């Protein structure tokens, strides 16, 4: 809306889809996504290694690898690996990034039936770094 006498905006109209998107982003960012192991499932911590991409970092050489951990409920190790790879790939695509090569680096079974967060984020690195990760 515009006040025609002064030509200054007095209000902005935001479409419902915009509000929905804002709320969705806030919920995803600030509310933990718990993981439950139900029935015959166990909880697994799966470390995933990503390579085969180039992600620019403000004014520095781009990073080209990362490690991230996902906590998943699964019936066995193979199922846990698949669920973790799928979750990381989904997150990667949702953020609008290009192709990435993912592989499982390590899988551990957890002694608990509930975990407050499913995992997110990661440790990025440059393969040109001498020290690595």
Straight-line N-to-C gap: 53 Å
**Unreliable segments (pLDDT under 50, ≥5 consecutive)?**
none
Main sheet makeup? 4 strands, antiparallel
Q: What's the helical proportion of residues?
A: 10-25%
Gyration radius over CA: 20 Å
Shape: flat
Kindly report the spatial arrangement of strands forming the biggest sheet.
Answer: 6-4-5-8
Helix/strand order, N-terminal first = EEHEEEHEEE
Task: Give structural notes.
The mean pLDDT is 82. The longest helix has 18 residues, at 77-94. This protein is of the alpha+beta class. It has helices spanning 16-30, 77-94, and strands spanning 2-3, 8-9, 35-36, 42-57, 60-74, 101-109, 114-115, 123-125. 25% of the residues lie in helices and 38% in strands. It has a domain at 33-125. The strands form three sheets. A four-stranded antiparallel β-sheet has the order 6-4-5-8.
Properties at a glance:
2 helices, alpha+beta, 133 residues
Topology:
Elements: E1 2-3, E2 8-9, H1 16-30, E3 35-36, E4 42-57, E5 60-74, H2 77-94, E6 101-109, E7 114-115, E8 123-125
Antiparallel strand pairs: 1-2, 3-7, 4-5, 4-6, 5-8
Brief overview, please?
With 133 residues, the protein is of the alpha+beta class. The chain is 25% helix and 38% strand.
């Amino acid at each position: 809306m515009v006040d025609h006498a002064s030509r200054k905006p007095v209000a902005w109209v935001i479409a419902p889809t915009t509000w929905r998107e804002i709320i969705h982003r806030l919920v995803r960012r600030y509310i933990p996504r718990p993981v439950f192991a139900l029935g015959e499932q166990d909880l697994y911590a799966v470390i995933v290694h990503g390579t085969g991409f180039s992600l620019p970092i403000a004014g520095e050489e781009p990073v080209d690898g990362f490690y991230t951990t996902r906590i998943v409920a699964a019936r066995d190790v193979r199922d846990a690996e698949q669920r973790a790879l799928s979750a990381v790939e989904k997150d990667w695509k949702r953020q609008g990034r290009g192709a990435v090569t993912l592989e499982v680096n390590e899988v551990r079974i957890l002694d608990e039936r509930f975990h407050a967060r499913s995992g997110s984020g990661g440790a990025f690195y440059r393969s040109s770094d001498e020290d690595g990760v």
